[in-house]
Amino acid sequence: MSNQASPISEDDVRHVAKLARLTLTDEQAHHFTDQLGAVLGYIAQLGEVDIDGVEPLAHPLDLTNVFRDDAEQPGDDRDAMLANAPDRQDAFFKVPKVLGDGGGA
Amino acid sequence: MTLDPTTTDMVGLRDSIASKQVSATEATRTYLDRIAAHNDGLGAYLEVHDERALQRAADVDSGKITGELAGVPIAVKDLFCTSYGHTTASSRMLEHYRSPFTATAVQRLEDAGAVILGKTSMDEFAMGSSCETCFRGGAKNPWDTTRVPGGSSGGSAAAVAADLCAAALGSDTGGSIRQPAALTGTVGLKPTYGRISRYGMVAFASSLDQCGPFARSVRDAALLLRIMAGKDPMDGTTAPIVVEPDLADVDQPVESLRIGIAKQYILEGANDPAVQQAVDNAVKFYESHGATVVEVDLPHTRYGIPVYYVVATAECSSNLARYDGVHFGHRTGEPVNDIVELFSKSRAEGFGDEVKRRVMLGTYALSSGYYDAYYNRALKVRRRIKQDFDDAFLQCDAILCPTTTAPAFKIGEKSDDPLSMYLNDVYTVNANLAGIAGVSLPAGTTEVDGKQLPIGIQLLGDAFAEAKLLRIARLYEEGHAHSALRPSI
User: Fold this and answer.
1) Other beta carbons less than 10 A from residue A3's beta carbon
2) pTM here?
3) Is B7 on the interface with A (CB under 8 A)?
4) Is B413 among the domain residues?
5) Do B213 and B323 reside in the same domain of the chain?
6) For residue B196, which residues of chain A lie inside 8 Å, CB to CB?
7) ipTM of the complex
């Protein structure tokens, strides 16, 4: 499938990858454009279905507002929860320095 | 008595242990020995918990652990969190992850006395139909190791098929229990959505994911269902209904049985002749046992795959947003300039290609300007699919159809063609979209390239009607010798 005929362009794929927080190589961007284009082309057949007046079905069970009792319960153990952190300091998740010297985000 | 795992089902083994013909330790050792001998070739297990399993077995033998599954060795898909060993979802992202808690489904099996042998291989984050998208290793089909065992729960299917456990847990989001069950000659049950807690199951698509068993027999699957089913305070989407006490009584007759068949499940030229023959023979079998066969219409069947690849990817793009390289999971070792780069590089390194494709597809379908065209439209067609089933189940007790169009395909045959891989689920996804139950049953074998390969048939049942569905399945099983067939490994 050429990119011209594809429902999604390589620029679209790069944009979506950015939204999804995925770094792509040029080769991946190119390859994924063809593959995602083929899948989106297949999905396009949903346009044939008469959906006038049909309510969307987001979930198979008709459940709303599932509450538990408002009672105190033991919480998760902090150290156990932090044990899988790639990096930590004391009771905190630690990330590399992400602001430049000028500060401001 | 020495134990031969290839001639018993789980309930039979359970009874042998309970009557002390076999000790739990002997049973556990027998399976561990088989794993040691065959797992290198089959890749069914990612991790085996020998010591813990033998300790639990000893506790069963000393009477410290009791229960309906006392001493029964069971394997668990590596999608279920366990507070021992690793839980990786076959992803580099979770390569070193050790869960602080245990999934409710696994806990309920252990509370009933089960001995968990280890964690089984799967497609990464349960995204795949071949067990080829694993970060490390990949299970093979015990009937022909050049072929896939199906997926995503391929390791659990292979482990049961090769008698490397008495039963196994899997998860089914679009067919990930039933398709591998069909390809390996095992019984695979996808219960109704909300039957079994999803707490502690690594999330893929939360409105579709459902835990279920792989088993040697229908009664095994039914017993495992009854033990795992029911409301869990840790999962607000478990159905608030009481588990029927007779849910596992599969030998009860079904009165005035009506079997539904749908022309939409006989895709023009798509079904392998042996698959079609198996379904046709099953229809005749039920007729000869007094069932009425009724034709039902499921006109929106063909839209299942496109709906699924919008809904499942949309939900996965949201669920997998939690993997950020900060709280748990893989973090890039490369230098980064800002926090977004930390996220983006960590995710790019931690996820495989299929996961990336699905996350991007879902992000696209939910993004501004495309939401109505893709996601909202897909949800409306999803309701059409559910309405089809609601109408059909007014006319029949179960729908009989193939599980897959063909027996197991070759490793590598479809691995870089996502669309062709997605079409594997053509007969299974609709049950997930509608939230109903489905079971795949062994239906004999067919010879391909000099090897016998299993074929499965599928029975679909209405939501929360598993008791009836499994009785109907048991009727077929009882009339055939298919469940006794084993691969030579």
Assistant:
1) 14
2) 0.96
3) no
4) no
5) no
6) none
7) 0.92
